[in-house]
Structures are given as C-alpha cells and as structure tokens.
C-alpha cells in the first residue's frame, strides 16, 4: 500500500502521538519550540483511507549564505520501522526534504538492538578484560533491529560516526539505561535495587530529605546546581534560556510533559532534576547536585521519588537516558553508569543515528566541520 507525505498541523501531529503508547519527547510538536535556531515542521504519512499512519518532527538548520539545510529528525520519525518495505516510508521523506533544500538528512530510529541486564553490566565493570559494553555479550539481541540496519544501508543510508572517547556519540545517545516499571509495584521495583541503593534511600528518609516538585520560578535554583555539576563533571552547560524555553514550550503542550524536582534538607536544595513524559515512557532528562551534604543521599532520594511518580502516572519505562559504554575505571563517567546499574534496570543500545547525504560535497564538508569542533 502506497503512502503519501504531507505537512500536518500541530493538532494532527499531537493527536497521532496521543494515540500511541509512547514516542520520543523529541518527536512531539512542542520540541520545536525548544530549538529556536532550527525551523520545525510536522510531517505525516497518509494511507489510502486518508489516515495518518506515521509522523515526524523535522528540525531544519540552515547553512549560512548557501540556502541549504541540515534536516534532523531526533529519535524519529515515528513510523513502522519493522516494515519490510521501508522505502515506502523513507523515499517520500527524502523527496520532501530535498524540495525543502536539505543537503543532508539525519535521523535516529527509536529501535533497540541489544540489551544488557544489571548483573551482566556489573560483571563487565568488574572484568579487567572488558573495555566497552558494546564488546560484551548482550543479555538479549533483537534480530529485527539488525535487519533494519541492513535495509537502511541498502536504501543508501549511512550510519553516523561511532561513539567518542567517553562513550557518548555526537547527537542523541546510542547507549541508554532503562528501568522497567510495567507490571511491578513500587515495592517490587525497590526490591530490584542493589543493597547500596536501598540503603541510600533509607539514609535519605532517615536524614529528613524532602523531595518536592518545583515550578518555573525554581529553574534558577536548578541552574545554580547544574552549573556546579558541569564544573565538577567536566561538561559544557547549556545556557539558562534553554531550560526556560523547554519549560514554556513543553508545559504549554501538556502540563505534565516536563516536571522539575528538588531535594531539600534543612531548607537547602541539594539536588534537582527534570523529568519528561510522553505516554507510557518517562525520561530523567537533566540532573544537578551540590557536593555539600552528599552523606544524606539526595540523588537517590530524588530518583526514587521520580520513579514512584512515573509509576503512579502509568509509565512502563523509566529512562535514565544516555550512559557511557566505557568500562574503563579511569573514566569519570563510569561512576554514573554504576549509579544507574544500582536500580536493577538494563543498559540498551539503539541502532544509532543515520545520515542520507543529498549533496555529498556539502555532507562531507559538514561532517569534517563537526569532527573538528
């Protein structure tokens, strides 16, 4: 059955997303408002009965003076990725984006290829012979994901560059850590935590750490902790305007699309985190904390409250988002992986981001520019 592609309204786009169990928070219409330097467009695939059967949020980034654009579909599009005839989805997309002046297209199929349970990750961290998670035998492997990658190559798509030295790829993370909530009670979930996690949750409760939801006015408090975290963990912080735009854009679409949590002790905010929700999938998006009073375990407290709230909202997955795939003890990011592993969840590897060079010359020049940044 042939599909045609057309621009759809925000309401049409959101109605389609609302009819699904979930989709990436980067594929809802409001995400375009978070990225003001990009032009956003909602696209829909229409079947023979005039029904929307797939949707995409496309972000266009212009090349100065050339009138050409990078077309980016972060963690999308939202289509049937297991269709044997993938061309009927992607060929109309490429045709439309070429008409819009795209010189290259980048997308991230939201398809998991491999998973490693907590015990496997823990053993890999302890094994001096293991250097990267991707080299470790997975707990589960989805052959459909590998068939998808073969189809993409046959259609002319190229897998984007691999992970960098710290295990994170450019663009969206290829490796994430996820905690399943489906069919489990909060007690079941907590019993899945390791001993250290359960002890730290009890420590926080005994010390009197209180976790509350914040609002727009509390973003300044979050940002002060976030910049402290950036200096400690050696990453470049986003500007404060980014979080203000995110709050305004996402909560205007759905009041629960974005939440802010604060962990307080004796009137002092020690940790803060943002949580994003689309359908039955919840993401821990950004976290921040001070080095003061770490003994009262505010980070465990805030995560446990967010997990319980996600469960109460009917979420099936609590997603800790990106994680390193390095198992090198000298890498400071390994501590973050250990923290997430303590929840008893799973590390997951997506099929990664894929490029389609419409103009091979501009695509190569742009790739070189990114590699030198």
Put simply, the count of helices is 11
Mean of residue pLDDT values? 94
The helicity comes to: 25-40%
| CATH fold field value of the largest domain | Aminopeptidase
Return Rg in Å: 21 Å
**Strand percentage, roughly?**
25-35%
For the termini, the CA-CA separation is 44 Å
Number of strands: 16
At the fourth CATH level, what is the homologous superfamily of the largest domain? Gcn5-related N-acetyltransferase (GNAT)
The domain tally reads 2
What's the architecture of the largest domain in CATH terms?
3-Layer(aba) Sandwich
Q: What is the topology, as strand order, of the major beta sheet?
A: 7-6-15-9-14-13-12-11-10
The ordered H/E elements are EHEEEHEEHEHEEHHEHHEEEHEHEEH
What best-fitting shape do the alpha-carbon axes yield?
Answer: globular
How does this model look, in words?
It comes from Streptomyces castrisilvae. InterPro entries: Acyl_CoA_acyltransferase, FEMABX, PG_Glycine_Bridge_Synth. The chain has 373 residues and is of the alpha+beta class. It contains eleven helices and 16 strands. The protein has two domains: 4-108 and 353-372, Gcn5-related N-acetyltransferase (GNAT) (Aminopeptidase, 3-Layer(aba) Sandwich); 112-141 and 162-350, Gcn5-related N-acetyltransferase (GNAT) (Aminopeptidase, 3-Layer(aba) Sandwich), CATH 3.40.630. Helix 6 (195-207) packs across helix 9 (298-312). The longest helix is centred in the middle third of the chain and has 15 residues, at 219-233. The chain is globular, with a radius of gyration of 21 Å. The termini are far apart. The model is unreliable at 162-170 (pLDDT under 50).
